[in-house]
Structures are given as C-alpha cells and as structure tokens.
C-alpha cells in the first residue's frame, strides 16, 4: 500500500468516473449486486443481508463487539470498490460502507 492511500466516500456516478482514472481491481462476492447492496440498511439482521447478497468474501471479527463482512476485495491490493457490512455483536447491521479505495 502506498503512502497516499485514501478512502473516498464516493459511489455511483462519481465512483464510476474514478474507476476510469484509477483502473480498479475489484473482485465481488458471487451473490453481490450493487442494487441489492444499496438495500442493506442499519438495523437489518445477518439473515436478511445473506438473503440480499449471499455469503461475504471475507469475515473479520473485530473485538470486542463487531464483525465486518467484506463483499469486495482487490486481488492486486490496488484501487477498488470497497463494500463492507458491519454488524454489532447481536448480529444487527450498524454500518454499511460503499466507498472507493484509492492507493
């Protein structure tokens, strides 16, 4: 990762335009769709998220009380569309991250 890595809180058209500039390297989970991801909201349970998106690519347990499900990653550790759902220890969505990661 370079010295100037950034998360840009841009998605949609802005993210699409950035992808032309920075040549993204994004791999998405098999059940992922951007329309379904947009429907994930804080307060939803794990089962609801799985019904919308399928299983995540990566699960991170972050002590003491969070779990993050990644629905995208970069095979080249470069610019990519970051898609993460964060759950509380009770299994409820607390945050939905849809950002463009620039390295």
Profile the largest sheet: 5 strands, antiparallel
Rg result: 14 Å
Spatial ordering of strands, largest sheet = 1-7-6-4-3
CATH class: Alpha Beta
Distance between the termini: 6 Å
H/I helix tally: 3
Structure overview:
- The chain has 103 residues and is α+β, with helices and mostly antiparallel strands.
- The protein has one domain (6-102): 2-Layer Sandwich (Beta-lactamase Inhibitory Protein, Chain:B, domain 1), CATH 3.30.1450.10.
- Helix content is 24%, strand content 35%.
- The protein has helices spanning 12-22, 34-39, 46-53, and strands at residues 6-8, 27-28, 58-62, 66-70, 72-73, 80-88, 93-102.
- The strands form 2 sheets. It has a 5-stranded antiparallel sheet with strand order 1-7-6-4-3.
- The longest helix is centred in the N-terminal third of the chain and has 11 residues, at 12-22.
- It is globular and about 40 Å long.
- The model is unreliable at 1-10 (pLDDT under 50).
Keywords:
alpha+beta; Beta-lactamase Inhibitory Protein, Chain:B, domain 1; 3 helices
